[in-house]
UniProtKB/TrEMBL annotation, chain A:
<dbReference type="GO" id="GO:0019888">
    <property type="term" value="F:protein phosphatase regulator activity"/>
</dbReference>
<comment type="similarity">
    <text>Belongs to the phosphatase 2A regulatory subunit B family.</text>
</comment>
<dbReference type="GO" id="GO:0000159">
    <property type="term" value="C:protein phosphatase type 2A complex"/>
</dbReference>
<protein>
    <recommendedName>
        <fullName>Serine/threonine-protein phosphatase 2A 55 kDa regulatory subunit B</fullName>
    </recommendedName>
</protein>
<keyword id="KW-0853">WD repeat</keyword>
<dbReference type="InterPro" id="IPR015943">
    <property type="entry name" value="WD40/YVTN_repeat-like_dom_sf"/>
</dbReference>
<dbReference type="InterPro" id="IPR001680">
    <property type="entry name" value="WD40_rpt"/>
</dbReference>
<dbReference type="InterPro" id="IPR018067">
    <property type="entry name" value="PP2A_PR55_CS"/>
</dbReference>
<keyword id="KW-0677">Repeat</keyword>
Automatic annotation (TrEMBL), chain B:
<dbReference type="InterPro" id="IPR052262">
    <property type="entry name" value="E2F-SERTA_domain_protein"/>
</dbReference>
<dbReference type="GO" id="GO:0005634">
    <property type="term" value="C:nucleus"/>
</dbReference>
<dbReference type="Pfam" id="PF06031">
    <property type="entry name" value="SERTA"/>
</dbReference>
<dbReference type="InterPro" id="IPR009263">
    <property type="entry name" value="SERTA_dom"/>
</dbReference>
<protein>
    <submittedName>
        <fullName>Cell division cycle-associated protein 4-like</fullName>
    </submittedName>
</protein>
<feature type="domain" description="SERTA">
    <location>
        <begin position="20"/>
        <end position="67"/>
    </location>
</feature>
Length: 449, 202
């Protein structure tokens, strides 16, 4: 199956000017994209950034007069989701950076999404308005109130078309439930509840109720000095509303069944791959820390991302993953330098394609990797302006770890570790991918589309 | 943790001290400095602090098992001492044979240009040592540690004490630290004393 040969049908740049001229005091830092998520149908693509803004792109409808524009994503809505806050009790500033966005399944004309920063989750309603009422009795067209005593006749307001306006309004604010930094949110398949996870706890919320949540996982020890691992990611099963998984900084994944007990401290399944003693080093624990966990669409598998690899697990087998894909094994000999410059702590995400036949994750130097699970082929591509002209095919990249560097190969020592692709997303149905490279968003599409 | 065949030597003669021990020591120093920097942040990242702390503990456990703490070369030795803190790439590899080779891509369709299996270089520790990479990293390694130490050294002794004075407790008990309740962690304290010794000798 063709994974993605990917011409860039449009190279979309995420700029601060899209935030309607709003610039934060942090300047350009606010534009760094921190999360990317397609909606369930794929017609909308949401991005969150370090400045607390959410930008939603919409795919253009097929238009015979503009055949080349089919499938292009253009800005649909921009809004400020989170603002920097100050916790006066602890004298701490709470960052407005959006950590995660998750769409709710569409139930009506309006669209809903959850966005979260370190402490607070918000439910946003995005709705379209293309009509407005005219002919009110109590106010003029410019909004000024009319004197009721001077009204001598009544009229019925009529709806008139107007330019499409997309409104984003906060419908719920779920706050004050997390002491530590929220790293994950996940909407349940029951479409009524969702979970939020921080370093030590996972809470269950009802979408309609903001003043309380249930704590379902708590790994905080009585004595904090006994703490050995933290929660790094969590997700609900796509079909079984009672099942969730969470990963840890020690490279383990626990599957919990909410039917077994109210507090899911005891897991139902424990996934851990035995360590290879021949490759053990001081950095083994750090590189085994799972930065992302994602269920496959089928619900039979889950995928975990650690520093050097992506692993696919069969939920029926806890002893080891069924597949391991090396993302950038050439970095294993550089772990010390990467520890020194803190890159070893980078949290890469991973994603499945719609049919679960391929997976994708990011790397450094603006490289991202795609693995075809059926053919076991993999490819390295680069998301950069210089290499991505609209409608041009992406050229596969190669990294040379040592020895003589061939033409077109990039040497490991010349990789730019400041250019990291942490966030990627795959359209739920088609071969369209979104890749966030610092403050730029790239959307690539299969040529066959 | 030791590569097979690498003999351990008594560290009486500092110039003959095994490279591994020196590098392990510098990794320990680096970890301690990182932990310090973590706690200079207004709100430390718990996961980040924990991973560094666990790494730090692993190093100290191994050093304890070895039966000795390798005291750092005194700062007064100047650049010569810094030169001994060469690239620590050697710590990344436990075996010198390199990684397991990936499947041969030769039989795959040419439609997809497959990234060839990337293998870590094979050879003796000496060859790992002598490549350009480690030297390049040495420079950056020196720069970052130098910067950190210079920043700390430039402050008055009083400021230094103040810097370390409030870090007695658990590194990851945010609640306790933030509410002013400080516990004690002997292991961390020993590490802190060690770092202070390095700076005081300057």
């Amino acid at each position: 199956m063709l994974v993605c040969q990917g011409p860039g049908i449009g190279s979309v740049t995420h700029k601060s000017t899209w935030a309607l001229g709003a610039r934060t005091k942090k300047g350009l830092l606010a534009d760094v994209i921190s999360t990317v998520e397609f909606s369930h149908s794929g017609d909308l693509l949401a991005t969150g950034d370090k400045g607390g803004r959410v930008v939603i792109f919409q795919r253009e409808q097929e238009n015979k007069s503009r055949p080349h524009s089919r499938g292009e994503y253009n800005v649909y809505s921009t809004f400020q989701s989170h603002e920097p806050e100050f916790d006066y009790l602890k004298s701490l500033e709470i960052e407005e950076k959006i950590n995660k966005i998750r769409w709710l399944p569409q139930q009506g004309a309006a669209r809903f999404l959850l966005s979260t920063n370190d402490k607070t989750i918000k439910l946003w309603k995005i709705s379209e308005r293309d009509k407005r009422a005219e002919g009110y009795n109590l106010k003029d067209e410019d909004g000024r109130l009319r004197d009721p005593l001077r009204i001598t006749a009544l009229r019925v307001p009529i709806l008139k078309p107007m330019d499409l306006m997309v409104e984003a309004s906060p419908r719920r604010v779920f706050a004050n439930a997390h002491t530590y930094h929220i790293n994950s949110i996940s909407v349940n398949s029951d479409h009524e509840t969702y979970l939020s996870a921080d370093d030590l706890r996972i809470n269950l919320w009802h979408l309609e109720i903001t003043d309380r949540s249930f704590n379902i996982v708590d790994i905080k020890p009585a004595n904090m000095e006994e703490l050995t691992e933290v929660i790094t990611a969590a997700e609900f099963h796509p079909h079984q509303c009672n099942v969730l998984v969470y990963s840890s900084s020690k490279g383990t994944i626990r599957l919990c069944d909410m039917r077994s007990s109210a507090l899911c401290d005891r897991h139902s399944k424990f996934f851990e791959e035995p360590e290879d003693p021949s490759s053990r080093s001081f950095f083994s624990e750090i590189i085994s820390s799972v930065s992302d966990v994602k269920f496959s669409h089928s619900g039979r598998y889950m995928m975990t991302r650690d520093y050097l690899s992506v692993k696919v697990w069969d939920l029926n087998m806890e002893s080891r993953p069924v597949e391991t894909h090396q993302v950038h094994e050439y970095l294993r000999s550089k772990l010390c330098s990467l520890y020194e410059n803190d890159c070893i702590f980078d949290k890469f995400e991973c994603c499945w394609n719609g049919s679960d036949s391929a997976i994708m994750t990011g790397s450094y130097n603006n490289f991202f990797r795609m693995f075809d699970r059926t053919t076991w082929r993999d490819v390295t591509l680069e998301a950069s302006r210089e290499n991505s002209k609209p409608r041009a095919s992406l050229k596969p990249r190669r990294v040379c770890a040592g020895g003589k560097r061939k033409k077109d190969e990039v040497s490991v020592d010349s990789l730019d570790f400041s250019k990291k692709i942490l966030h990627t997303a795959w359209h739920p149905v088609e071969n369209i991918i979104a890749v966030a490279a610092t403050n730029n968003l790239y959307i690539f599409q299969d040529k066959a589309n | 943790m030791f590569a097979r065949g690498l003999k351990r030597k008594c560290a009486v003669d500092e110039e003959a001290a095994p490279a591994y021990s020196l590098q392990r020591q510098s990794l320990l120093d680096m970890s301690l400095v990182k932990l310090q920097l973590c706690h200079m942040l207004v709100e430390p990242n718990l996961c980040h602090s924990l991973l560094i702390t666990n790494t730090d503990q692993q190093i100290q456990e191994e050093m304890t098992q070895d039966g000795r703490w390798c005291m750092p070369v005194p700062q007064t030795a100047g650049r010569a001492s810094r030169d001994l803190l060469v690239s620590t790439e050697i710590l990344c590899c436990c075996t010198w044979e390199g990684v397991h080779p990936a499947p041969d891509p030769g039989d795959l369709a040419s439609e997809f240009q497959v990234v060839p299996a990337v293998q870590a270089p094979r050879g003796s520790p000496g060859s790992v040592w002598g490549r350009d990479g480690p030297q390049e990293n040495r420079g950056s390694f020196h720069k970052s540690l130098d910067q950190i130490f210079e920043t700390l050294e430039s402050q008055s002794p009083g400021a230094l004490e103040q810097l370390f004075s409030d870090v007695h407790g658990s590194y990851y008990d945010l609640d306790a630290v933030l509410t002013g309740m400080l516990g004690g962690t002997k292991l961390i304290q020993d590490g802190l004393d060690h770092v202070v010794d390095i700076l005081v000798e300057t």
